[in-house]
Amino acid sequence: MDQVKIGKFIAVCRKNLNLTQMQLAEKLGITDRAVSKWERGKAMPDSSIMLDLCDVLRISVNDLLSGEVVTMDNYNKELENKLLEMIKQKEQSDKRLLVIEWVIGILSLIVLLVPIFIGAYLPMKDWQRIVLVFSGFIPAFVGICFALKIEQVAGYYECKECGHRYVPTYKAVNLAMHMGRTRYMRCPKCNKKSWQKKVLTKE
Q1: Strand order of the sheet with strand 156-158?
Q2: What residue ranges do the domains of the chain occupy?
Q3: Residue 40 confidence (pLDDT)
Q4: What pLDDT score does 157 carry?
Q5: pLDDT value for 116
Q6: 1: confidence class by pLDDT, cuts 50, 70, 90
Q7: What is the C-alpha to C-alpha distance for residues 151 and 128, in angstroms, rounded to an integer?
Q8: How many Cα atoms within 13 Å fall on the side-chain side of residue 201?
Q9: pLDDT for the residue 166
Q10: Can you give the pLDDT at residue 80?
Q11: Which of 42, 78, 181, 197 sees the fewest Cβ atoms within 10 Å?
Q12: How far from the centroid of its chain's Cα atoms is residue 190's Cα?
């Protein structure tokens, strides 16, 4: 989506209704600074107020996301383009999330191992060693849980038996045997267990 184009479109629609940025902001219960950011292409309207914004400006959501009034002649094509763009953005977002997952995993491992090595090689009392190791275990455990959550929601898993692609539950991901991002899970469609690979696209 072209934020600059959308911002200019919001400004034109607002001016056509003889509304100031402050008046539009008051109708939406936000600040005029937020409206200014939209119109300068610096930010997008939040999804929670997008419908209200369209009602005030007397446009459709498709008009807003297209940055222009969409006629019936090209409505289906514009809608198809928006869907394709949303799919592409999700794939890019999932790629970034999976990179973050690796970073979190490596950092969690470091946080876990450093106190263990310190406790093993530096002289200290037993209770101090236990506290030290435990202090590394807690943040490492939280980090690993967070990394697993990212792996669950980013992209899809593909069943080796029937080819179905789906997002498994967090429990299924957490309990499954795995080799990297390939996990041994039961497919919700064919109900068979197989080694399922992580993929980024739905089809």
Answers
A1: 165-166, 156-158, 193-199, 182-186, 177-179
A2: 3-70, 89-153, 155-203
A3: 92
A4: 92
A5: 86
A6: low
A7: 35
A8: 4
A9: 92
A10: 67
A11: 42
A12: 28
Q: Is the pLDDT of residue 159 over 70?
A: yes
70 pLDDT more than 80: no
Q: What span, in angstroms and rounded, lies between the C-alpha atoms of 25 and 196?
A: 49
**Which CATH superfamily groups domain 3-70?**
lambda repressor-like DNA-binding domains (1.10.260.40)
Q: What are phi and psi of 92, to 5 degrees?
A: -65, -40
Contacts of 135 (CB under 8 A, 6+ apart): 115
- Residue 24: alpha-carbon gap to chain centroid: 29
The amino acid at 115: P
Quote helix, strand, coil % in the chain, to nearest 5. 65, 10, 25
Task: Determine the 3-state secondary structure of 31 from DSSP.
Answer: coil
Residue 135: Cβ within 10 Å count: 12
Q: What's the predicted TM-score (pTM) here?
A: 0.55
> What string of DSSP letters covers 66-103?
HTSPPPGGGHHHHHHHHHHHHHHHHHHHHHHHHHHHHH
